[in-house]
Amino acid sequence: MAGARHITVSETSRPILARHAKLKFDETRQVWVILAPERVLAPDETAVEVLRLCDGVRDVAAVIDELAAKYAAPREAILTDVVAMLQDLADKGFLTEVREKAS
Amino acid sequence: MSTTDGLSVLEQRGSTAETFGIPLAVLLEVTHRCPLQCPYCSNPVELDRASTELATEEWKKVLTELAEIGVLQIHFSGGEPTARKDLVELVKHASDVGLYTNLITSAVLLSRAKLGELADAGLNHVQISFQGNEPIIADRVAGLKDSHRKKLEVARWTRELDLPLTVNAVMHRQNLHQLTDIVQMAVDLDADRLEVANVQYYGWALKNRAALMPTLSQIEETSRIVEEAQARLKGILTIDYVVPDYYALRPKKCMGGWGRQFFNISPSGKVLPCHAAESITGLEFESVRSNHSIAWIWQNSEAFNRYRGTGWMQEPCKSCEFREIDFGGCRCQAFALSGDAGNTDPACALSPLHETIFKQAEREATEGGDRFIYRNFAGGTPEAGGDHGA
């Protein structure tokens, strides 16, 4: 079965881009893009960094820990931004979540 | 941190409307052959014969060239793209050169093995058209027995192979009452996305307008159903909605503006500003078989430059405050309904023809017969039997 639908992003979620959403560096225009059917999104630099950490293995808490360590920034501020950005992508149907299979 | 609509951002990065940067996505109509005969087919009335289609190596060269000039997504469409025996090879090649690939299909020719081969070749997404939510209407509209059951089967295989799925539902007077059930069908099929696409009336659909045109009350009900479903299914099913422009006051920004964001390539290799563009007589379209590169054709050819931007406009478009919002609507529709592609699209309330055409559409919606003219290489065949006669 495919990834779960309609996810609510929290520190314990393990998000990953949906199969139809491809993160790619566009050499022609020199920007990162997310490709999806009939849509192209342009994530900013920080969003790209977060998405590259969202591999379906790390949970959101781990992603935030890495970013907080790297930028020596307060964890709470990063948490709010990251969760909001990921929830927005999830609502648009670009993000899914790895869950335990119900046998 | 944010993720925004890519188009606006990319337009500021060498893909601008002003310099007509290469589009992000290109539609390849790899064949006009199709086992279905839908009366609203978006192909031109004059279909390209199999003998004129680009060969495998020609399409591969096109794909390589498109990737090199900055195109990111390819929609393999038709006709029915799976009617080409080399489709797996083409998808594989597109993936190899880094393109995001989408298959736009009627699904009826696909076996599970073939779909698996396409997935292995790197196909990113599948879009299947549906003509209704049950076989009686769906098979009649498609002009093909057993097509609805087959589509459902292929849609299930698509998800079993973990390929993302869009259900494309083409809506008109004779199936709009099924919309609520079609939304549920898309959810049940575990689709990621549903396109509720009201028929656009050019080519074959224009021939069939009296049999397809919805009533105004149907459209109001449709908008209500779509809005309710969009809110209810947020994060579960994305629903894109294409409104029929005959009942609108403002015309649609067709193709994002002529020669601004989109081109497609016909089975015989013509590079077109829109899949209906060949319906405009007097325009010459360059081919990928010519000596010109695709980038040159996009930037310099007469057909792309004729209606690009706002310089071609006459009144009421010329001085209109919306001229860069909708670019005067659709050129093909302006040509089909007014005889001049340089006129304002009659879908616009400011067009002198708007009132007449709106009234005509309303009349056809209530008085038109339900019988179709089916799409085929013979120029169309009227539906048999008296059940749906005018």
Essential attributes:
heterodimer; A: 103 residues; alpha+beta; three-stranded antiparallel sheet; two-stranded antiparallel ribbon; globular; B: 390 residues; alpha/beta; nine-stranded mixed sheet; 15 helices
Q: Based on the structure, what is the oligomeric state of the protein chains?
A: heterodimer
Counting DSSP H or I runs of 4 or more residues, the number of helices of chain A is 3
- Run of helices and strands of chain A: EEEEHHHE
How large is the count of helical segments of chain B? 15
Largest sheet of chain A: 3 strands, antiparallel
Runs of chain A in which pLDDT lies below 50 for 5 or more consecutive residues are none
Main β-sheet, spatial strand arrangement of chain B: 8-7-6-5-4-3-2-9-10
Low-confidence stretches of chain B: 12-19
Structural summary, described in words:
Chain A has 103 residues and is α+β, with helices and mostly antiparallel strands. Helix content of chain A is 37%, strand content 21%. Chain A contains three helices and five strands, in the order ββββαααβ. A three-stranded antiparallel beta sheet of chain A has the order 2-3-4. In chain A, helix 2 packs across helix 3. Chain A is globular. The mean pLDDT of chain A is 85. Chain B is of the alpha/beta class and 390 residues long. Helices cover 34% and strands 13% of the residues of chain B. Chain B has a nine-stranded mixed beta sheet, with helices on one face. In chain B, strands 11-12 form a two-stranded antiparallel sheet. In chain B, strand 6, helix 7 and strand 7 form a beta-alpha-beta unit. In chain B, helix 2 runs parallel beside helix 3 and helix 3 runs parallel beside helix 4. The longest helix of chain B is centred in the middle third of the chain and has 17 residues. The N and C termini of chain B lie far apart (58 Å). About 2% of the residues of chain B have low confidence. Chains A and B meet through strand 2, strand 3, strand 4, helix 1 and helix 3 of A and strand 1 and helix 1 of B.
